[in-house]
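User: Hi! I'm a student and our assignment asks us to look at how structure tokens line up with a sequence. Could you show me two examples?

Assistant: Happy to help. In each example below, the sequence comes first and the structure tokens follow. Example one:
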Amino acid sequence: CMALDGAVLYFAEDKQVHRVALGGGEAIRVAELDGQVAALAVDGRYLYAFTVTQEHAFVAGDVLRLPKQGGPPSSLAAAAPRPAPLSDVVLGSDRIIWSSERPARILTVPLAGGVIETLIENGSYPVRVGDLLYWQDGAGVWEMPVRGGESRLVMERRTGAMGPIQVAGPDLVWVDGSARRLVRARLLAAR
């Protein structure tokens, strides 16, 4: 897993987190953690890591906050469900957001640490664009403010295998895994 912060790429190898300049150079170890790193996210001050352990059958672990230049991690939440494969970890202004695989739901924990809460039942593949959070479920793709609030359907479900989504201007894009093709669809709000 990887997280990009301007001209620096953070990446994980098993239990270690490293950083390297995009322009090249030596990779520098930032931390060695107790569990295997399953996902990374980064903001202006910190690096966030999701770890999983054999004790939890690699499906749950800890959400940790680390100084970007290295140093001891702080635990934000323990026994957190592992992020779903290919799912984005989204940082809001005051919380971290991710989707679990089984059951499919979007979870959140405060950046200061605390209790894990279910933000959206049956949701997956969250992505942040500006102040909006997008995700998908069986009905289609939804949006809501990252800080929380009312959600609304912005694209009805289509046929085919819908994987992780991204927003590109007024369109949603994803790869239809069964047909191996890029799909682009106009958001309902942009029609």
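Example two works the same way, sequence first and then tokens:
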Amino acid sequence: ICWRLRRQISCAFFACMPCVIASIKSVASFFSVRMNTLSQSPNKSTTLRYNSLPPTKFIGQNICYEPTVPSTNRWAAQCLKASPLTEGTVFVTDHQYQGQGQRGHMWHSEPGKNLTFSTILYPTFLSPQRGFTLSWVATLALHEAVAIYATEALTIKWPNDIYHADKKLGGILIDNTVMQGTLHASILGIG
């Protein structure tokens, strides 16, 4: 990360960035390995919890799964409104048919062929003006996680897209809730 970027990121956030990057990399790698197992259980309609969790400090210690949902970000937001959730809770699906993009763009994923998940974070140490740093960290983490499997160089189209061989491979959408001048909750969607 360039020095200019370091100055823009708060000290507390920059200090925890390696942990968040490692957590997101671990969860993304975990889901890529578990993809076939999940798609072999298409008739399960209730949320389930995994017994074998990725080795992270907090992201992915609580994983909710549904075979098909309109949007993992919307599903996470509904659950967050209904009751408090543990930070790092991940919502994953095999088939997302109304995924959200920037500026209201919608997209769908082919069933069982994509990683589509959202994570609940509580970045209360960030002001709303610094919320964009979550996108930076998540994009760097996703880039590092996907690079493990890439045969060619990956590129980042800032602030939130990963490209492989000049084709969009995936992206990130973050929905923030602001309360009393601080970020209360963030839903980090990756697809």
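Here is something you could point out in your write-up. The mean pLDDT is 75.
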